[in-house]
Design brief:
Oligomer: single chain
Helix content: 25-40%
Structural class: alpha/beta
Length: 173
């Protein structure tokens, strides 16, 4: 059976939740999928493909994603890798949003070639903000959730074809 690793780097669990939704979609296609924090992955050798997801904050990816790419650089070069970014900047993209995303990805792309890139809006609560959040009490009613489950599932469903992998019993295109 084709095995896929979805490794994620997150600060407030939104990226983990998106990775979980992707895994459900891929499992429904007959693929064996593990979802693990990027900081916990010790070996990628047993996987046919890898998906690396990270939140993006103030123009930077989460450090654990960069560390993952650097630590597993050699074995990742031998298999298909996709990436996804999660951030509120993708809720209403403007001119230059993708250029900023690509700039944020440079530390990851220095170690691994991404065959596919997905971008998704996330979830934000003002208490997450540095400085401002320090003076606020967490209030779930102030959370803005801009995630688009249909877009997340559609992107995940497209991955086998884009990465050249198939589920057990399927033929490669």
């Amino acid at each position: 059976m084709t095995r896929i690793l979805i490794a994620y780097a997150t600060k407030h669990n939104t990226t983990r939740e998106i990775a979980g939704a992707m895994a459900e979609t891929l499992r429904s296609k007959g693929l064996d999928v593990d979802v693990t924090a990027a900081s916990s992955v010790t070996d990628v050798a047993g996987y046919d493909a890898v998906v690396l997801g990270t939140a993006i904050y103030i123009g930077r990816v989460v450090k654990d994603a960069v560390t993952f790419a650097a630590r597993h650089e050699a074995p990742l070069r031998g298999r298909p890798v996709a990436g996804f970014l999660v951030g509120m900047t993708f809720a209403k993209p403007e001119a230059g949003t993708m250029a900023k995303a690509e700039k944020a990805l440079k530390p990851i792309r220095a170690h691994v070639d991404l065959a596919e890139l997905g971008t998704f809006a996330g979830r934000m609560n003002p208490t997450y903000l540095p400085v401002l959040g320090f003076f606020m009490r967490y209030d779930e009613t102030k959370t803005k959730d801009a995630r688009d489950g249909d877009a997340i599932r559609a992107w995940a469903a497209s991955l086998p074809g884009k990465l050249g992998i198939t589920a057990a019993g399927e033929e490669s295109a």
